[in-house]
Known about the structure:
Shape of chain B: elongated
CATH architecture of chain B: 2-Layer Sandwich
Helix content of chain B: 40-55%
Radius of gyration of chain B: 23 Å
CATH superfamily of chain B: Kinase associated domain 1, KA1
Number of helices of chain B: 4
Oligomer: heterodimer
Mean pLDDT of chain A: 75
Order of helices and strands of chain B: HHEHEEEEEH
Number of strands of chain A: 6
Distance between the termini of chain A: 76 Å
Amino acid sequence: MNTSLHAIIQASRRPLIEWSLGPRIVLGVGLCLLLQGCPTPYELRHENQWDSREQIWLSDESQVRVRAAQSRIFDTADQHRMLATIVSTMQDLDFKVEVLDEELGIVSGKKYVENEQIYGVDLSYLLYQPDTLLVLNRSYRTWGPFHHRTNLVRFTATVRKRSDTQLIVRANAQFYLRAVEDPTPYQKFFRTLEQALFLQGKLVE
Amino acid sequence: MRLLKEYRIIVIAAICLVVGCTTPQPSQDLLAPTEAQMKIRSVQTRAFDVKDRQVGMRAVIAALQDLGFIIERANEHLGLVTAARFAEPNFYDVVGVTVTVRSETDGRMMIRANAIYNNKPIDDPKVYQNFFATLERSLFVTKH
């Protein structure tokens, strides 16, 4: 009994692969990855957000500060004109408008930025639309829409009444499946919107 | 000595992997208009002598259908139409288009089209000229 236990312990201590083979295997795997081109294994460098409790704490910045950067107050009560101007500003920014609800005051769109080389074109990725049942697809692809999202920018703007004479516009952008928390892109968006509206936006206090 | 050389290669490969695999950061100009877009804006926009926006919208939808697009969504009140189609000759690529129809104060209709080829915006004026030529034809058919 005692000897068999000893044998098991001995066996577990023995390395599975001889040491001289180790570096060669590592080298081979490393070279394979390099030959594939590093941007390819998207799944490896993008952690899956399995746990919703982690998502809640995903924001790195103070929510109040992010929210202030994303919001502007405009001295107009014309929600229709505001939505139309946001759509035309999004056209200026090369966005494809995807969701538009006047009652709720929501505009959403997406665009692709050139940030890295993508091998081939995955149509189901380009055609993926979260809000529609229309599937414009030549063949069924299982991995389809979720494969590479490194170049996708998603944008949502909401327009709601603040008072009888004021509207509040909040813009949200997402890049690489993460919320954009840097205030500069939002400042640039609102500058473009202000120019299109001929109105000066005010920061939310 | 040979072992040392192998280790050196492993270290270099590891560095390359680590450098290449970092999460890309959003650029500061993510939501800023580009110079090219400002230039192409006039090509994308055209005014038509139509008073009723619904007529304009119907003409836009008909023109897009003439060009083989599948209409994805149309919002009459805000004057927005989006459509997509597979591009010739292989039909492996996708063209997406967003068209807005806007009433001007002088009774004319401003129609603006934005087209995207796969993941890049189209900046060739000929593409837009072709669209507006089809739209004119479509308006003519709708009117008469």
